[in-house]
Amino acid sequence: MLIKPHKKLNVWKKSINLITEIYKITKSFPRYEQFGITAQMRKSSLSVASNIAEGAARQTKKEFIQFLHMAQGSLSELDTQLEVANNLRYLNKKDINELSSFLTEIDKMITGLIKNLKKP
Fold it and tell me: At what angle do helices 93-118 and 10-26 cross, to 10 degrees?
């Protein structure tokens, strides 16, 4: 069986873990937020892993890098949504700290991958 290239990437694996955590945490959000911040946070987290996967499947490094930048954009969206959820008191201090660390770690991994891909 052929293993897709993205499945070999630690950053993709880490982003799958992020999605899982976001889904678990947003389960406790108010029901009236189901189509609001809950949906947005889930979409943003899914977008991170999806862009990494799509980029890894592209033909050129330049295309891959473009998708990695989009993944970083989705991380920034998620960071903003975490701030809003925190302001609304949907998250406790422990969750916000853990998720913020998670985002920072993934962002650093993506930055490292971009730098590596830019090497001649």
Answer: 160
Contact (Cβ atoms closer than 8 angstroms) between residue 118 and residue 14: no
Backbone angles phi, psi at 110, to 5 degrees: -65, -45
Tell me the C-alpha to C-alpha distance, in Å, between residue 20 and each of 91, 99, 116.
16, 11, 27
pLDDT in tens, 15-31: 999 999 999 999 999 99
Domains and CATH numbers, the chain: 5-118 (1.20.1440.60)
- For residues 38 and 29, the answer to whether their CB atoms sit within 8 Å is yes
